[in-house]
Write a structure and sequence with these properties.
137 residues; alpha+beta; Nuclear Transport Factor 2, Chain: A; 2 helices; 6 strands
Amino acid sequence: MSATDSSLIRDTIYSYFQIAKSKEIEKIPEFFDSQFTKFGDSPPYDRRELERSLMLEQLQFASISDYDFKIQDLKIDLLEGHAAIATFLLESTGIIVDDYSFRGTTIHNKSRATVVMQKDKKGRWMMVHQHLSKFPG
């Protein structure tokens, strides 16, 4: 894998999680390939196809305040052709705000993350699949 591809993948992953801080949720679709699927670390725990993933990601990112994240131990492996797998530890903090009760719930999650990416015809690395699983406790 070229250093350029590795940097582009890293930057894409960081930019994606930065959306929860910037609240530019309209940008979420720019990160997902049309075949995108996800297993998340919060309910619902089923496999989410693209449209459902977009709706839930936008809702989650819009509902969190004081969000921050750390990505640790990022490893990027290029597969045959234009595909890559990124694995890392994701630590996220913030407050999930319930607009109906005006209450917030503090979160501090540490999850294992796997992101499958594919390079599109424009040279962009797009997310094809995400799998997040929380550490126990």
